[in-house]
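Session log. Operator J.P. requested a structure for one protein chain; no other inputs attached. Running the standard single-chain path with token output.
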Amino acid sequence: MRYTAGELAKKLGVSARTVRFYDEKELLNPCDYSESGYRLYDENSVLRLQKILMLKYMDFSLEQIADMMKKDEAVIDMQKSLEQQEELLLDKREHITRLIEAIRKTKNSDEEQFWPNLRHVIELTRDREEVIAQYKSDDNLKKRISIHDYSTAETEWFHWLFEKEQVRPGMKILDIGCGNATLWKRVAALLPEDLEVHLVDYSDGMLKCAREVAADITQEYPEKNLRFVIEKRDAADFSYPTSGFDLIMANHMLYHVAREHRLQLYPKIKSLLAEGGRFTCTLIGQQHMKEMHDFVTEYYPGIKFPSGAFDIWLETAREELKSYFNVLSVEEHENDLYVPDEQLIFNYVASYSEEAKERISRDKEAFFKRVQSKMNEDGTMYIHKSTGVVICEA
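Structure written below.
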């Protein structure tokens, strides 16, 4: 059976203009033309338009729909696409929730403070959106971590940190901002028995990876009797249903939390610690990856560094934390990088943001040549690292 654009539109409850629109976008091509030149569609067109409308209803972009329809994806690929779309919609829902909270926090302000308060809350919301976009999956985090394989440290970072944490059998541990649980993956063989480890993060993508890591560890080391608990929590508005932790960790995440929220977080962390419990946090120093930042500033001015808006550093953390904890020590990991691969530098800079990725991708060859100009005679680029841990007790 053949349908005109109007008949097809009526059959599926849309306007003829909608049919023409998808035709113009080359998503819905006619199967034939009438003698008068009208576009004609068949039953396959009906099915195709149904798919387009369903995908559009689920908020896929036209580009995504075009790609999916072009591939005529198998069911398993469609399931993957739907999973990705689910994560996107959850992010949007959380964004709307944060905007509602911003309005509620400011709507009762007096006339003089209303606009400054609203602007301040929205700026905090926008900053958090940028962080969430960076880490909604672990792809960017993997790119950041991979470059550190070329370190000069005698003890690699995760093993060094694990030694500083002094994890003992039977401890109850809370890891706030656990990310993709790379720490636990790297030190799995070193874990003592009978641990209860709570992994929390705000990103669904990170938590998905953390669950996989936890499952792998418990399967590989059943004799250790390890228990992992995985929860979605927001450090900017933190609460937790259980306490009595021997160790609470916040690794490379405090600088992603606005200062006013950090100052609310510290008393909550202290209240969750058992008597004699410790709080540790890893941070970067102000000179961390300096050569990388200098390179980007020289050749790609305007690209924002992930650390550009940080307001807590390894050098300044003691002053902020001493009002809430007994700061026992601030220790820096002795480590620098000699990176021999231009692609790793490219991947690292691309992980800064979508803007950074777009700019350096315009001429990848030029980027590689610029990296090569910064390399030593041995064909490596030297990059200083400054990372460490602050160890506190309640």
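Operator note: The domain at 139-393 is CATH 3.40.50.150 (Rossmann fold).
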